[in-house]
Amino acid sequence: MADKYNIEEAEALAKRVLHLPIAQATPIYEQLLSLYPTSARYWKQYVEAQMAVNNDDATKQIFSRCLLTCLQVPLWQCYIRFIRKVYDKKGAEGQEETTKAFEFMLNYIGTDIASGPIWTEYITFLKSLPAHNPQEDSLRKNSLRKVYQRAILTPTHHVEQLWKDYENFENSVNRQLAKGLVNEYQPKFNSARAVYRERKKYIEEIDWNMLAVPPTGSSKEEAQWIAWKKFLSFEKGNPQRIDTALSTKRIIYVYEQCLMCLYHYPDVWYDYAEWHIKSGSTDAAIKVFQRALKAIPDSEMLKYAYAELEESRGAIQSAKKLYESILGVSTNSLAQIQYLRFLRRADGVEAARKYFLDAIKSPSCTYHVYIAFATMTFCLNKDPKVAHHIFEEGLKRYMSEPVYILEYADFLTRLNDDRNIRALFERALNALPAEESAEVWKKFIQFEQTYGDLASMLKVEQRRKEALFGKAEEGSFALESSLQDVVSRYSYMDLWPCTSKELDHLARQEWLVKNMNKKVEKTNLPHGPAATGSVASSSKVVYPDTSQMVVYDPTKKSEFASSSNPVAASASNTFPSNVTATATHGSTSTFDEIQKTTPPALLAFLANLPVVEGPTPNVDVVLSICLQSDLPTGQAAKQSFAVKGNAPSQNDPSGSTRGGPQRLSRDRRATKRKDSDRQEENDTATIQSQPLPTDVFRLRQMRKARGISTSSQTPTGSTSYGSGFSGELSGSTG
Fold it and tell me: Low complexity composition bias: which ranges (predicted)?
């Protein structure tokens, strides 16, 4: 399908065919248009190629194939050019044919937003008609007036220009009459102009050159689908408040244009038919469904919708043919079941029974057909014996289908036949493999909870565990009784004997039990050289150490602890104990190393940070702490850095006793630092001279911080940061 509707290849082929002779180009155009029958652009290109060689018969044939399905102005302008070329030199007969052609064209696309040039061309043509006597002149003026009045009521790109031309026309005929007519049509013109402005917004979102291809789910296709839906919704609202007939005609026009782009979208066809049905035009809806099945012949959805329409209006034979066409293409169980239901509605249960006996002989028949017909028989005939017999016959073929077992059990439950239900479960569980029996065991336990006693209920639960988890050592944890079993036994529908928090806790415990053995195997892997060879093949793959993973518990909140090491204290409260222990493993603590390399002001800032509850911290609190913290400014940081840089290293055994070239290099570095300091001071001054920030949120935070810092009596920090943000020169930093 993707290769068949290759847009890039189609566009390249359309460009290449322009340079071929018409004899070679014709089969290529036919190939293109067989794939894209609603592309007005390709039809126009095809017909212009025929017109260029004066092949009038072929041109007429092409127009008859495309005009009514491709409602686009450029193609119809090509049509009127051809008509005028043929009839312009045929005198009065030709003028009459041309007039009919204009009326025919405006009847179909006269409401298009781009139809302004066609209205103008028609008016110009009428003005050019000869008038041999006053009576003919009067008739011509009346014709012009009617065309003008239709044109100015149509929301097009040229509506304002047409209004001006109409005013000039009326004034040229009769000024006294013109005033009354202009006043009469002025409100109608204003309404058309307002609707044009609204309609233009929807039109601009549509790609009119989009080729119709089956849906691929691309963002462009979805955007176009949304644009057309919005446009249709706008037109259905009748924004111009015109009469029902004209509004209906306008909506049909938009649907037809939509199908030019969304030709392979079954939902658009269905909406179009449904709109016709709601409008009371069933015949039009039938025609839409027929066209839809030509466009998308494999759509079962449209066939069912069409059959539903035919059945609703009493056309049983037409509906039957549609169902049979579905069965002829795809003999699946769904089609058989739907046909069973249709026959029951149309011809009675006996006709459905005859078809059921034929359907179960088909190799494509599944257990769904047995369930559907047994349920139908039980509900309609009120005879459980026949339905029971059908289920038993199906059980011989579908004992290995858990869904069939469950449906059969539901049927027996409706009959309150607990004896046969228990026998059914025993037969089925003996035949089903363990990996497919989970749902049947669940249903069996629910049955025992309703019909059995406590002993039988516990016995079935234990049998279920042994069947699903086995009796081996790896299933020993699952075989043990747990509180989860109690919750399962004493819950009902959406009612639970515990809180949601307790249920989450039990679920986490169950997950931990299931993964307990995996963690043990991970930690018992061999180490050393002997283990290197066993993992050599996967040495390039790095796997995470899942043994260090901890189940996330959102209810736990870390508390601040006053400590001489604020970073380590905060980390020890924030991270679980096993993670902290892992991080601090070794001769030197990781947090001690961080403390040595972290400035004291930053350590104090980190100690004041709040506990983060959730994925992000409270921005207001963090900004407030930033503004209150005594972090060094640019110059203070440079001074402290310069002092540290000139001091001898404690780790250097030679200390400052070394001289010569090393001292010279230190002097050069100091000179470079001074130059860089000057550059940074210039940059700082440039930043401070900038105007106030326009961020309202930032200004609010500064005001809040100033108020807090004043109350906490920390004028130094507040002054330096306040002046820094406001752009003033700070005395405290100088």
Answer: 709-727
Contact 353, 344 (CB under 8 A): no
Determine contact, residues 244/256, Cβ cutoff 8 Å: no
State how far the Cα of 119 lies from the Cα of 156, in Å rounded to an integer.
10
pLDDT over 50 (residue 74): yes
* Interatomic CA distance for residues 568 and 607, integer angstroms: 9
How many percent of the chain have pLDDT more than 70? 72
What pTM, to 2 d.p., does this model score?
0.68
> What's the pLDDT band for 699 if we cut at 50, 70, 90?
low
Q: What is the CATH number of domain 7-202?
A: 1.25.40.10
Angle value at C-alpha 516, between 513 and 520, nearest 5 degrees: 165
Closest by CA position to 562, among listed 603, 607, 594: 607
Share of the chain above pLDDT 90, in %: 57
- The band of 544, judged by pLDDT with boundaries at 50, 70 and 90, is confident
Q: What is the pLDDT of residue 328?
A: 83
Name the 3-class secondary structure at 495. strand
* Extents of the domains making up the chain: 7-202, 407-471+483-510
DSSP state string for 240-281: T---HHHHHHHHHHHHHHHHHHSTT-HHHHHHHHHHHHHTT-
| Model pLDDT, residue 598 | 75
Dihedral of the alpha carbons of 249, 253, 256, 262, in degrees to the nearest 10 = -130
What residues contact 370, with CB distance under 8 A and at least 6 apart? Answer: 360, 390, 391, 393, 394, 398, 404
Structural contact between residues 66 and 40, judged by C-beta atoms closer than 8 angstroms: yes
Report H helices in 575-695. Answer: 577-583, 590-597, 600-608, 619-628, 634-646, 661-688
